[in-house]
Design goal:
This protein has 423 residues and is of the alpha/beta class. The chain has helices spanning 10-17, 36-48, 72-80, 102-112, 125-135, 149-156, 176-186, 199-224, 233-245, 253-262, 269-281, 310-316, 324-338, 375-387, 415-419, and strands at residues 25-29, 56-61, 89-94, 115-121, 139-143, 165-167, 173-175, 285-292, 297-307, 342-348, 351-359, 362-369, 393-398, 406-407, 410-414. Strand 8 and strand 9 form a beta hairpin. Helix 3 runs parallel beside helix 4 and helix 7 (176-186) packs across helix 12 (310-316). The chain is globular. The chain starts with 9 loop residues before the first helix and ends with a helix.
C-alpha cells in the first residue's frame, strides 16, 4: 500500500518545537502508527532547513530490522560517535524501550552532549515508570492522536470555507456531512487517510494495527518486564471488545467482570482493572473521569472509556452503522483532546453533562447529540445545561440538522463549526 506523503501536522509540530534547544527531552507519545515517527521527521526537516552547517542530525529507530544496538552502552556510543564537532547535535530516537536501561543512556546523553533530544513511545509505562525515574522534571510530553477531522481533510486534499461543500482533488463535489460520516467509519490513522480507502483495505490495516498494539505493546511488554498481570490474550481481546462496544457508557470494573463471567469468561474485578489499565497505557482507550459539579470534586467511580480511533471501533464491530450518537460523542471527545482541553464527564445529582472541557482558565459545558429535531430530544439535551447556574459557557454540538444559534443562552454548534474549530 502506498504511504501518504509527509503532510505537516502543524499543531503537534509547534508543540514539539516549543522547548527546542533546551535541556528538556521532548517525548512524543501516542498509540502505535498515529504519526509519531513522521512528526520526528518533520521536526528534523524544520530545523535542518535552517541550513546551519555546524549542526549534526542523528536519527535511530530501534524497531528497525537493520538496527543492531542491543545495550544501553551501545546506544550511548552510537550517538556519541556521531556528535557534531562544532555545533549542537539533534538526536531523534524512535521507540527506545526495546533496550534495557535505555533511560540511563538518554539521561547520560542529556548530561554529556551538547544536544537536543526528541524521542517517541507507544506506551505510557515509558513515562510513568522508566523515564520518570531518571528524568523527573527533565522532559516534556507531546501527546499525539490519530488525525483530527481537520487533519483528515488535509490528508484527503479537501478544504472547506464557509460552504458545506468543497471540491475533492478529482473534481468531485464533497459535502462536509458525508466526509464526517466517512471519518466516523474509517477513523484517522494517517497511513490510510484517503478518499480511495476501501473497507477491505481498512480492515486489513486495522487487523495488523490491533495485533501490533495488543501483542507487541501489551502482552510482550508484560512478558519482557517479568510482569504477570496481563497474560491472557483471549481475555484481553474480550475486554477490548467490551470497551469498544460501550464507548461513552459509565463503567465499573465489577460490571465488566460480571458481564464477561456470565458470558463464560470467568474473571475478577482486580484482573479487569489491570487489563483496562494496560489498554489505557497503550493509548488504545482513554479514561474520562466523572466530575461532581455539586461537590466540585473528581469521582473515582464509574468513569467512561473512549477509543483512540473510530476506525478501530468500526473494524472491531464489523462496520455496523448503529450507535451513531455514541460514535459522534467519541469523536467530540477526541477533538477536545486534540485542541488541548482537559476533559471530564459532568455529574449533577441524577443528571449528566456529557463533557466539562477546561483550558487556560476557560470552562465549557458540552452536550453532544446526533440531532435535536423533536421537541423531546431538544429538551432532553438542553435540560442538564439549563440546570447549571454558573456563568461558564454552555454549548450543544449537533451532528445533523440546522438550528437557531442560541437557545436561552446555550449556543448550538454544528459539527462542521466544531470540528473545523469555528466555535
Amino acid at each position: 500500500m502506498k504511504q501518504p506523503e509527509l503532510i505537516a501536522r502543524q499543531r503537534y509540530l509547534d508543540r514539539a518545537l516549543l522547548f527546542r534547544d533546551t535541556d528538556l527531552i521532548k517525548v512524543i507519545t501516542g498509540v502505535r502508527r498515529c504519526g509519531k515517527s513522521s512528526l520526528l521527521a518533520m521536526v528534523r526537516d524544520t530545523i535542518e532547513s535552517e541550513g546551519d552547517e555546524k549542526r549534526s542530525f542523528v536519527s535511530l529507530n530501534l524497531e528497525s530490522g537493520s538496527c543492531q544496538i542491543s545495550t544501553q552502552r551501545e546506544l550511548y556510543n552510537y550517538f556519541r560517535d556521531r556528535l557534531s564537532p562544532e555545533g549542537k547535535t539533534y538526536i531523534f530516537l524512535d521507540e527506545p524501550q526495546r533496550i534495557e536501561g535505555w533511560q540511563i543512556a538518554v539521561n547520560a546523553m542529556r548530561v554529556d552532549f551538547d544536544c537536543d533530544i526528541y524521542l517517541t513511545g507507544s506506551n505510557a509505562f515509558l513515562l510513568s515508570s522508566e523515564l520518570s525515574t531518571y528524568l523527573s522534571g527533565r522532559y516534556v510530553e507531546v501527546k499525539m492522536l490519530p488525525l483530527a477531522m481537520r487533519e483528515y481533510l488535509d490528508f484527503c486534499g479537501i478544504s472547506f470555507g464557509n460552504s458545506s461543500a468543497a471540491l475533492a482533488p478529482n473534481g468531485e463535489i464533497m459535502l462536509f456531512d458525508d466526509l464526517l460520516e466517512r471519518y466516523l467509519k474509517f477513523g484517522g490513522m494517517p497511513a490510510i487517510a484517503s478518499l480511495s480507502t476501501t473497507q477491505e483495505v481498512h480492515s486489513t490495516y486495522m487487523s495488523s494495527l490491533y495485533d501490533a498494539v495488543v501483542t507487541r505493546d501489551i502482552l510482550n511488554h508484560e512478558r519482557l518486564q517479568g510482569l504477570s498481570k496481563v497474560t491472557d490474550a483471549l481475555l484481553l481481546s474480550r475486554i477490548v471488545d467490551f470497551l469498544s462496544d460501550n464507548v461513552g457508557n459509565q463503567l465499573s470494573m465489577k460490571s465488566i467482570a460480571d458481564t464477561l463471567t456470565s458470558a463464560g469468561t470467568k474473571t475478577t474485578n482486580k484482573t479487569v482493572d489491570s487489563y483496562v489499565t494496560a489498554l489505557n497505557d497503550a493509548y488504545l482507550f482513554y479514561r474520562a473521569s466523572r466530575f461532581d459539579l455539586h461537590g466540585k470534586e473528581i469521582l473515582r467511580t464509574n468513569p467512561k472509556q473512549y477509543i483512540v480511533d473510530l476506525g478501530l471501533r468500526a473494524y472491531l464491530g464489523g462496520y455496523r452503522t448503529s450507535d451513531m450518537g455514541r460514535l459522534f460523542e467519541n469523536a467530540v471527545y477526541l477533538q477536545l483532546l486534540f485542541q488541548g482541553w482537559r476533559v471530564h464527564v459532568g455529574k449533577l445529582y441524577s443528571s449528566e453533562v456529557d463533557f466539562i472541557a477546561i483550558k487556560d482558565g476557560r470552562v465549557v459545558y458540552i452536550q453532544v447529540t446526533d440531532e435535536m429535531i423533536s421537541e423531546g430530544t431538544r429538551q432532553r439535551e438542553l435540560k442538564p445545561l439549563k440546570t447549571l447556574r454558573d456563568a461558564h459557557e454552555k454549548i450543544v454540538v449537533v451532528r445533523q440538522g440546522r438550528y437557531e444559534a442560541d437557545i436561552d443562552g446555550i449556543r448550538i454548534v454544528t459539527a462542521k463549526d466544531f470540528f473545523l474549530e469555528n466555535w
